[in-house]
Amino acid sequence: MIPKLVVRTAVRIHDQLQRNRSRPALFLPETSWQECQQQLRLHDLAAQHHWLEAERQMQFRLHQTVTQCRRQLQQLCSQLETNDPSKRLATLGDLAADLLALEREFGNRQIDLRCSVLSVETEPIVLEGVDLGRFRIALDWSLWGDDQPYDIIALDPNPAAGNSAVTQPHVEQDGLCTGEGRLPIRQALAEGRLFDLFLLIRQILSTYNPDSAYVKLDDWNGIECRDCGRRSGDDERDRCERCGEDLCLDCIVSCERCDRRCCTDCSGQCAGCQNRLCDRCQNQCDVCDETFCQECLTDEICSECREQQEDEVPETTDQPTCEAGQSSDTAVHADGVGQTAVPA
Question: Would the pLDDT of 342 be above 50?
Answer without folding.
Answer: no
